[in-house]
């Protein structure tokens, strides 16, 4: 996204017809890019010069078109100053100067309604004031006068993109490139539409073409780096583009903000690279361990093979020894038979002696058998007694185990009961009021606050908050719910208030809008200061999250039609800066955008600010301040311009989810 509207408006000097005389140094410095630090001074000198030339011509008829040209030039000078203020993040000054420029272009168009230049210049200012419908009307008038004006197609495509009509935007940008094939700005804008649609290859090709036909600037390098990163597997190319963007000089605050976002993206890529390196080292270590295991298994197999071979060799030797033993046994048997024959005679002689010995032995054996039976009976009796003791011990162990199991179950039930009681106590100590107003009756319908409130309430409920929900509340309903919440917050350690919807400032006072709010009656609004006063506490933590001041086309339309000097302060864009002395101790306030800035309602189901909250609130161990640093990076990367803001008077740390 570019700081001067997402589509790149070509400066006035490229559009106005060439003057008859040579251009002055101030005119070139003011109306022709690139602008520098001296642009405002040069433009002011050029405005004074043109104003002196307008006065005598205005008294006579504009015969040669010089009065038309000078009104157009003076409007272009105001427009150049406005863009310089916008680049320095000074939207209020930029808006005032764009309105002055539109007044000059109106005068030029009145003098010559058939010339396209003042129309295209006025459309540029309407686009930068975020009035896409008026910008489209001017660009269509240019195309009726000059049907082949590539710049008009480019700028109208940008206005359609601001309205969320990507298909019409893509058609106009394609037509611009058909008419002017080296149109660097059209390539950049079409790449941005492709990136939004996640057509990363086409986005990269268009950003590359933009730098081939135009300068390599911070925005184009940062956008192409995001496309490389989001495509996946191209971190090296993304890092190269981000580093190239950081190497370029940042001439203004908006460029520095883009470079800050790029630094965050580079840091994320480095963290990812570190994680991948650690994973590669882990895999390599695993592979080395697996190789060592395979080597050991191979060595074990080889040792087993050697043992098998040795066993076979031993078995063979054993067979040979058995055969030798068989031969020796045959010889011994022969000798034994001979010896047996000799012994038979001796045995017969000895049998008689043996019979006598056997008789004696039988008597002795009978006595020994009786003794053994007695011993066996005694042993069996001892074994029965031992079994009885074992069975008794087993029964006692079973009974003891049953008692221990019952005791463990009782302890587990008590632990679960204590856990439930602690959770209920935590819910009593952490309460939240979440309000999402979408269905406004007079201020303009917003699609996302209801979705944001319901999603955030669900996350807070999972984080053990007792949540009060309020969707599309009138002034009376909102006041009644705030009173209930304030009463409940008195004894709570943590109280959180979230508001999504319209918000406004008047004379430095910030107002939150119920759905029946009317800009003509401040009494229909709820002041942010009253919410702070209701929930402040001398102990505990108080958190206010304000996703308000979303785009309000209807209110901006009314404001733009009033004379600048008499416009009500109540239609100023964004919330006012809160005096730090008015923020009570122990309170943390987070805003979706900086003071004086408008927050985006988003093109999906949630606003960019709510998406960041939903992503990081459940993160374990993420301290409150670090959480909003991450949310701010997410929103800035998503929108390119919106930067959330916090007012912090907490004394300690706070975690939505404790470290695990």
Provide a concise account of the structure shown.
By secondary structure, this protein is of the alpha/beta class. The protein is built from 19 helices and 9 strands. A 6-stranded mixed beta sheet has the order 2-1-3-7-8-9, with helices on both faces.
Q: Would you tell me the overall average pLDDT?
A: 85
CATH topology value of the largest domain: Rossmann fold
The CATH class of the largest domain turns out to be: Alpha Beta
Instruction: Briefly note the structural class of the backbone.
Output: alpha/beta
Count up the domains. 3
**What share of residues is helical?**
55-70%
* Distance N to C terminus: 39 Å
CATH architecture of the largest domain: 3-Layer(aba) Sandwich
H and E order? HHHHHHHHHHHHHEHEHEEEEHEHEHHE
Strand content: 5-15%
Oligomer: single chain
DSSP, total strands:
9
Query: What is the approximate shape?
Result: elongated
Largest sheet: 6 strands, mixed
Question: Which segments are poorly predicted (pLDDT under 50) over 5 or more consecutive residues?
Answer: 1-21, 552-571
Output the strand order for the largest sheet.
2-1-3-7-8-9
Number of helices: 19
Radius of gyration: 45 Å
């Amino acid at each position: 996204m570019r700081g001067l509207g997402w589509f790149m408006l070509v400066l006035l000097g490229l559009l106005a017809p060439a003057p008859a005389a040579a251009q002055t140094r101030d005119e070139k410095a003011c109306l022709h890019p690139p602008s520098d630090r001296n642009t405002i001074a040069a433009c002011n000198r050029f405005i004074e010069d043109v104003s002196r030339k307008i006065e005598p011509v205005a008294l006579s008829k504009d015969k040669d078109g010089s009065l038309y040209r000078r009104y157009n030039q003076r409007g272009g000078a105001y427009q150049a100053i406005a863009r310089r203020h916008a680049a320095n993040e000074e939207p209020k000054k930029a808006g005032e100067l764009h309105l002055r420029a539109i007044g000059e272009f109106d005068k030029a168009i009145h003098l010559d309604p058939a010339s396209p230049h003042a129309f295209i210049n006025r459309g540029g200012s309407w686009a930068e004031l975020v009035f896409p419908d008026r910008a489209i009307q001017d660009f269509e008038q240019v195309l009726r006068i000059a049907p082949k004006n590539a710049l008009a197609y480019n700028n109208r495509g940008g206005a359609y993109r601001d309205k969320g009509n990507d298909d019409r935007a893509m058609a106009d940008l394609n037509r611009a490139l058909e008419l002017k094939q080296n149109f660097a700005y059209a390539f950049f804008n079409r790449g941005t539409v492709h990136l939004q649609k996640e057509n990363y290859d086409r986005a990269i090709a268009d950003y590359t073409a933009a730098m081939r036909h135009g300068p390599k600037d911070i925005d184009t390098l940062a956008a192409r780096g995001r496309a490389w990163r989001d495509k996946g597997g191209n971190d090296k190319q993304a890092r190269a583009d981000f580093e190239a963007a950081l190497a370029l000089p940042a001439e203004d605050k908006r460029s520095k903000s883009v470079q800050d976002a790029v630094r965050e993206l580079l840091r994320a890529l480095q963290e990812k690279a570190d994680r991948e390196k650690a994973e590669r080292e882990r895999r390599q270590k695993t592979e080395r361990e697996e190789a060592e295991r395979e080597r050991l298994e191979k060595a074990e197999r080889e040792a087993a093979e050697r043992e098998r071979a040795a066993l076979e060799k031993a078995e063979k030797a054993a067979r040979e020894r058995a055969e030798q033993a068989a031969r020796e046994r045959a010889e011994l048997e022969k000798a034994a038979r001979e010896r047996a024959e000799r012994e038979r005679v001796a045995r017969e002689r000895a049998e008689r002696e043996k019979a006598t010995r056997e008789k004696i032995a039988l008597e002795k054996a009978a006595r020994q058998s009786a003794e053994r039976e007695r011993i066996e009976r005694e042993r069996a009796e001892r074994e029965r007694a031992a079994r009885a003791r074992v069975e008794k011990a087993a029964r006692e162990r079973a009974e003891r185990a049953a008692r221990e199991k019952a005791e463990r179950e009782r302890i587990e039930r008590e632990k679960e009961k204590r856990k439930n009681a602690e959770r209920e106590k935590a819910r009593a100590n952490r309460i939240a009021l979440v309000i999402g107003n979408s269905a406004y009756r007079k201020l303009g319908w917003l699609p996302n606050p209801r979705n944001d409130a319901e999603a955030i309430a669900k996350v807070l409920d999972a984080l053990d908050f007792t949540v009060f929900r309020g969707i599309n509340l009138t002034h009376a309903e909102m006041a009644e719910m705030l009173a209930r919440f304030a009463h409940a917050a008195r004894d709570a350690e943590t109280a959180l208030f979230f508001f999504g919807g319209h918000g406004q400032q008047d004379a430095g006072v910030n107002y939150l809008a119920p759905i029946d709010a009317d800009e003509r009656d401040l009494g229909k609004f709820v002041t942010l200061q009253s919410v702070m006063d209701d929930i402040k506490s001398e102990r505990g933590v108080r958190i206010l999250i304000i996703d308000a001041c979303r785009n309000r086309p209807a209110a901006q339309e009314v404001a733009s039609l009033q004379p600048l000097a008499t416009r009500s302060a109540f239609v100023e864009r964004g919330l006012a800066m809160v005096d730090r002395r008015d923020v009570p101790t122990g309170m943390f306030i987070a805003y979706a955008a900086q003071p004086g800035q408008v927050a985006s309602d988003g093109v999906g189901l949630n606003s960019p600010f709510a998406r960041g909250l939903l992503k990081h609130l459940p993160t374990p161990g993420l301290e409150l301040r670090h959480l909003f640093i991450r949310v701010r990076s997410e929103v800035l990367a998503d929108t390119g311009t919106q930067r959330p803001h916090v007012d912090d008077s907490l004394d300690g740390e706070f975690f939505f989810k404790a470290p695990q």
